[in-house]
Structure formats: C-alpha cells, structure tokens
Design a protein that fits this description.
alpha+beta, 15 strands, 5-stranded mixed beta sheet, 6-stranded mixed beta sheet, 10% strand, single chain
C-alpha cells in the first residue's frame, strides 16, 4: 500500500483534469459533508485526495458500487471524504480516470457565492448607470429610464386612459430580457426578504459594494429596496390595482439596455399581480419598520389597498393571447399567466396577518390551509405563506396558533419526502429524485428544495436537513451530470455564455458574475442544438438557449437564500464549537 501511495504523484502528473470527476468546484466546510462523484464506466475502486501539485496524498477512500442514473445513461460511483477536515487546497485523483479541478476546504467557503449572487441583482438594476467602482468590468450606462411609460389599452381606466404617460422607473430587469414583471418579482422579493428575516444578524454587516454600502441599512435591504420602490409605482393610486408588467411590446434584441428605444407599457391589472404585490409589501412593511420607517408605512398602505382591490376583482386572470385579440399593440413578452390564484390568496393573507394581526386575514388563512403544498415557484407560492406563519408563530392570533402543529407537520412531511430516497440518487443529491425536477429553471428547483430543508432544520434543529440542503448547493456548483457550475464566475467550469443581453453585448469575455443559469431542461423549447438531451443532461452553455441557460431574478433569489443560510448556520456552529 505504501508503495502504491508513493507512486500517486507520478500518476497525477501523467493524468489531466477530467470531466468525469464531479464535485462542488468551490469547496467544502472542514466539518461538513464532502462527496465526489465519478461518472462513466470505470474499474476504479479507490479515490485519493492529494495536494494541488499531486506530491502528497492526504486521504484515501473507497468508491461505491456502480450505479446507473434514473435520468440519463450516466453511470456513477460515489466517494465520501467527509472525515477529512484539514483546511487547504486539494484535488481528487482516481487512478485510470484523472484528477479533479482544485477545490478548497475552509471556513466561510461559500461566502463569495452568497455575496456574488446577491450582487447579481445590482447588475440587473434598470434606471441607473452601473459605475466602475461598483460594477468593475461590467460597468455600463443607465438602462431604461421608464420615466414616461404608457398605459396600454388593456390597462386603461377612466382616471388613466390608454396612452396616459406615467413614471415607473427603477427595479430589476427580470431575466435575460429587459422587462419588469410583478408576478415574478413577487416570489423573488419574498425569498430575499425571508433570507433577511431568518438571518438578520448575519446580514447586518454583509457588504457587497453597492452604491448604498456604508449607510445605516444592511446591503441586502438596500438592494431589495431598489426593486421595492419600483413595485410601488406599479399600483394604480386611484383604485389600488396592480399592473401585471412594465414591458416593451416585443423583446429587445441582444443589445445593451441603454440602446433600446421602443415604447414601454403598463399592461393589464391582474389578481395575481395584486396579491403577490400585497404579500411583498406587507412583508416589507415589517422588515423595513426599524430601518426605513416611511418606506414601511407606504408599503403597508399599498398592501392593504392591493388586497382590497383583489377582493373586488378576485378572478382577473392575465391571458396574453386573449388580450392580444382585443388590444393593440400586441404584447409578446413573458406572460407569467397564472390560472389559479388560491395560493396567492394564502400567501398575501399570511403576510398581512403576520404584519397586522387583523382577523380578516386570519379567516382567509384558515380557509386555505387544506390547499396543496409544494416547493415554491412563481406559479405556486403557498409555501411562502407557511414559511412566514411558522417563522412568526409567536405573534399569530390564537385561532391561527392552533393550526401551527398542522402547518409544521405538513412542511416536515414534504421535507422528509425530499430526503427519503437520496441514496437512490446517482449524484447523491436531493435534486433529481424525480425527472419532474428537470424543468425550465431547474436550478431554482434545486435551490428552493434546499430552502424547504433549511426551514425544516430551523424548525427542528435536526442536522440531517442541513446536510441534505448542502447537497443541492454542491449540485449547483458542479456535482451534476453536466459538470458545470451553474453560477457565472464561480468554480473552475462555470457557464460562460448565458442568455443574458448585457453579458452578450458588453464586449467583456466573462459574463456578468453571480447569476444562476436555468439548468437542464429536456423541454428544450428554444430549439437550440443541445449536445445531450436526457433530462439531467439537456443543457447547453450557449446564449441562444433561453430554455436552459437564461438567468432570472426568481432563480437567483433562492441561491442567495441557500448560500447565505448555509454560511450563517456554519458560522453559528463554528462559534459554538470554539466556545
């Protein structure tokens, strides 16, 4: 055995970095789980952790039996080196296969991911220039000013006839395109506000170098406020209704945002937009109460007006195809049409209840607790209400406190279902236990699964939920069938060509950093050329691929929560161990 280990440096020198070794390309916590996956048919039975020059072997372990993935023709073997906890830089060597990218073991290993993904929102700001001192190589002029947006005929009212010009500046571009959508902003903002509510001490001094850094407000709340103030402009002051989106009639080309001059419109009010808006502004009202009181007051008034409008207009659904049959110009940008708003009622009522304690909201919550529950998405936000009710269970009225055990039980049941079959996963992740995980925006499915597990951990203190949540962070950073790190600028093989107009048009080789790619999507709706087409491999790092390689704010928000939560919890654990 000693003789074989002595030969390992020569073996490393003779082999190259291989795509067949998949792991978190950023690294691992000293006391945390550490898993490596070897893909392809191989007779290797051992793996070795070596120094980066290959001269020293610091750990060796056995590879598992071969396993075929349920979602592709990939075969895998797993190696576990969780017992190795020495801080430093290392590689994984598998004789006959090659060696991995270099990775780190250390404290705060994901802090750069947490900061970069939050900073990703700054790069999506709409109506202001991104200056060199904050944006670096990705500096640019201001995007759409949106100070003169037209009321679309679908949104016309007596007070605001079609063609009325109103201001709606600021906010974040929704995705790789240059439009702004209230429904998708809803879950995005709720997730980011929840990150702060769950870990306020962690974010207190969490600086990401944005123009507001150094003021009295945490940077995460400063960044959220930039979009929040735009959302407030989307409410019609005459009746409290909320416009579905602020948009061009058609998508812009792959150009920088300051170049585009097409007219912008506020398009039809909708019940989903009003309720998502009500939920976000109600949550923001309590979060900003001690930071920006006047903003908090404005948010609460806006939330209650939006709720009242929704009560009067409970079934105004956004149907873009029908809208275009009646009005011109035709609108062809992202629809975010939601045919079922039961979950929006529950989320809005939950946030307003926590913030105000009023009985009308408790009644709605109690009526909606039997509705189906799932990992959240823009189209199903029921779980967002669960998170807030359980987070603030001590302030709930007695009638709702009585159902807290039921809410907690439903959440934990769903969390347990997500970790129940991890051993059958070829990549040892929570992500991918079902082929249904691989959809448009599958990366956000992985991140939102982890948020569910992190909430289960916060409710129970059970470490298993945290361990499994980290497995999906590993997935996003390289331990997946594609071998990519899906976060721009992170890891040794990050995506380089996202469907993101500024990244395509700015003349900078590297894409804007801190953006999460959509990930494998066997639907392949963009009709681009994909090198592989099975569910977990249907991905192409090409800017034509809006179905697998676009970015979106509702995908970035859950990885912000995930990376920040894992960092905060690891920091707490480290401090506890030191004491």
């Amino acid at each position: 055995m000693f003789f074989l280990l002595a030969l390992l440096p020569l073996a490393v020198m003779a082999q190259q970095v291989t795509e067949s070794i998949k792991l978190n390309q950023v690294g691992f916590y000293p006391q945390g789980p550490k898993v490596v996956i070897v893909t392809g048919r191989t007779g290797a039975t051992q793996f070795y952790i070596t120094t980066t020059n290959g001269r020293d072997t610091v750990f060796s372990g056995a590879l598992s039996a071969e396993q075929k993935s349920q979602h592709s023709s990939t075969y895998t073997k797993k190696g576990d080196f969780s017992l190795f906890n020495k801080r430093g830089s290392y590689m994984v060597l598998v004789p006959g296969v090659g060696h991995s990218y270099v990775f780190q073991i250390g404290d705060s290993i994901h802090i750069d991911i947490a900061k970069a993904t939050l900073k990703g929102f700054y790069y999506q700001r709409v109506s202001m220039p991104l200056e060199v001192q904050y944006a670096g190589r990705w500096h640019r002029g201001a995007g759409h000013p949106d100070d003169a947006v037209r009321i679309h005929p679908s949104a016309a009212s007596a007070q605001r006839p079609a063609g009325t010009v109103v201001p709606s500046p600021g906010g974040w571009y929704d995705a790789g395109d240059y439009n702004k959508y209230i429904v998708n902003s809803g879950i995005t903002m709720g997730t980011l506000l929840s990150a702060y509510e769950d870990f306020p001490r962690y974010y207190q001094n969490f600086s990401i170098n944005i123009p507001e850094s150094g003021d009295a407000v945490p940077d995460i709340l400063d960044e959220i406020a930039y979009n929040l103030r735009w959302m407030l402009t989307m409410q019609d002051p005459s009746d409290g209704g909320v416009y579905h989106k602020c948009t061009n009639a058609d998508f812009d080309g792959m150009v920088m945002p300051g170049i585009t001059k097409a007219p912008r419109y506020l398009v039809q009010k909708s019940t989903a937009a009003a309720l998502d808006f009500a939920a976000v502004t109600a949550q923001a009202a309590r979060v900003y109460a001690n930071h920006v009181p006047r903003l908090a007051d404005s948010c609460l008034r806006a939330a209650e007006k939006a709720w009242q409008w929704a009560q009067k207009n409970p079934a105004v659904l956004y149907d873009q195809n029908e809208l275009n049959k009646k009005f011109t110009p035709a609108i062809t940008t992202g629809a975010y049409g939601d045919r079922n708003v039961k979950d929006e009622w529950f989320w809005a009522a939950s946030e307003l209840l926590v913030t105000t304690g009023r009985k009308v909201y408790a009644d709605t919550v109690l009526r909606r607790t039997q509705d189906s529950l799932s990992v959240p998405s823009w189209a199903n936000v029921q779980m967002m209400g669960y998170y807030s009710l359980l987070r603030h269970q001590t302030v709930l009225p007695q009638s709702v406190k009585a159902i807290v055990p039921q809410l907690k039980g439903s959440l934990l049941q769903l969390a347990d279902a997500h970790i129940g079959n991890v051993e059958r996963s070829a990549f040892a992740t929570v992500m991918g236990q079902s082929s249904r995980d691989f959809i448009w925006g599958s990366s956000s499915v992985a991140a939102n699964q982890s948020i569910l597990l992190l909430n289960a951990h916060l409710l129970t203190g059970d470490k298993k939920y945290l361990t499994h949540a980290v497995s999906n962070l590993d997935y996003l950073l390289g331990r997946n069938a594609t071998g990519y790190s899906f976060v721009t600028g992170a890891g040794s093989k990050p995506i380089m060509h996202p469907h993101h107009r500024p990244s395509v048009a700015d003349g900078v080789t590297e894409p804007v950093p801190g953006l999460l790619s959509g990930g494998p999507n066997p639907g392949m709706q963009d009709k681009c050329t994909y090198p592989f087409t099975e569910p977990e491999t249907a991905f192409t790092d090409h800017d034509c691929s809006y179905a697998s390689n676009e970015i979106a704010i509702n995908w970035n928000a859950p990885i912000v929560y995930l990376a920040g939560a894992v960092e905060a919890l690891q920091k707490e654990l480290r401090i506890k161990n030191e004491e």
